[in-house]
Amino acid sequence: MGDGARSDLWFMEETFPLVVCVAPSQWHELHVAKMTEEFERYFARGDRYALLTYAPRGASFADARIRRTIAEWANDGRVRKVSAELCVGSSTVVHDPFARAALRALTWFWKPACPQHTCAAADAGFEWCLTRLNEARVPLGRSAHELRARILASLEPR
Questions:
Q1: Which is it for strands 10-12 and 116-119: parallel, antiparallel or unpaired?
Q2: Cut 0.85: pTM above it
Q3: Is the model's pLDDT at 134 over the cut of 90?
Q4: What 3-state DSSP class applies to 139?
Q5: Are 16 and 141 in contact (CB under 8 A)?
Q6: Which pLDDT value is given to residue 62?
Q7: Contact at 8 Å (CB) between 59 and 23?
Q8: How far, in Å, CA of 155 to CA of 1, rounded?
Q9: How do the domains of the chain map onto residue ranges?
Q10: Given this model, what pLDDT does residue 135 score?
């Protein structure tokens, strides 16, 4: 399941309250629909969580139309309210340094609903999310070591 092994958007269900979302190698409207559907399930659950989004190496940027659709969804008043209440923080792993810089710069113009973090490696994103969950006193349901091993093996096999 490492980089390039999947071209579709997917979520690791078994790691909740650390929600892991792996971006597709190329975004399509169906991916946006699947993403919003998955988040609606997490919202309906009503439990606090942290989000680790992983962009595989070589993944292409979403085109302007897809980015606008995602931004409109993320800026919807209900989505922002529920995200602020439930999401203790969101870390995005992007390997390309220019893309990382662009994501960081986005927060100069847009106020996210929850704390944001951008990094180059899954381990750094995992640690940041784990810290947010611990600070919010959200129980993990399993050891951090077990979560780390499961997530990192799926995202960045050695």
A1: unpaired
A2: yes
A3: yes
A4: coil
A5: yes
A6: 82
A7: yes
A8: 7
A9: 10-155
A10: 97
Quote the pLDDT of residue 7. 54
Question: Any idea of the CA torsion for 98, 12, 83, 130, to the nearest 10 degrees?
Answer: -80
Reported as half-sphere exposure (CB side, CA atoms, 13 A), residue 111 has a value of: 4
pLDDT tens by residue, 92-130: 998 888 877 777 777 777 788 899 999 999 999 999 999
Residue 86, SS3?
Answer: helix
Distances in Å between the Cα of 92 and the Cα atoms of 33, 45, 78, 120, 123 are 20, 23, 22, 8, 11
Model confidence over 35-74: pLDDT tens digits?
Answer: 999 999 999 999 999 999 998 888 877 888 988 898 899 9
| 97 prior amide bond cis, ω within 30 | no
Q: How far apart are CA 89 and CA 112, in angstroms?
A: 10
Query: What is the distance, to the nearest Å, from the Cα of residue 7 to the centroid of all Cα atoms in its chain?
Result: 16
Q: What is the DSSP letter of 110?
A: -
Which of 9, 109, 122 lies closest to 66, judged by CA?
9
Short-list 93, 137, 132, 140, CA closest to 114:
132
